[in-house]
Design goal:
The longest helix is centred in the C-terminal third of the chain and has 14 residues, at about 105-120. Helix content is about 40%, strand content about 5%. The protein has helices at about 5, 25, 45-50, 65-75, 75-85, 90-100, 105-120; strands at about 40, 55-60. Strands 1-2 form a two-stranded parallel ribbon. By secondary structure, it is mainly alpha-helical. The protein contains 7 helices and 2 strands, in the order ααβαβαααα. It has one domain.
Amino acid sequence: MNIKNSLLEPKPFLKWAGSKKWLVPFIKKYIPSKFNRYYEPFLGSGAVFFILKPKNAHLSDFNDDLINTYKTLREYPEEVIKELKKMPYDKDFFYRIRDNFKPKNEIEKAAKLIYLNRTCWNGLYRENSDGKFNVPFGRFENPKICDTNKIF
């Protein structure tokens, strides 16, 4: 099955601190019904982008790993899903991935970011002064690490 063609409604696949998801009902009425291009300078989870579904968009964010993840999912969703399905919700595994895993390619890099985001404390993305992700393991009942309904 081709994942790209099987989904009708793309939705944010990440949890993101500072997400504009809660603002969408308020700001949607101020967005013109027709526009040529959508610019998103603070992409994060992409909540506004996924609601508007613009045909022409320029998405950006200061976080290079985040942008890489979006680009990689656009090109290789099935491969990222395959990597995510190998990753269990396990505290020891989380810290091995967070602290020691060095991705060999863009697919592994995207899977790492999604995995850490879905399993860390509150979906927070934070790096220390050395540029290393340093959010602790989250405590969830049953997190959906690989939500194929949201990955397109």
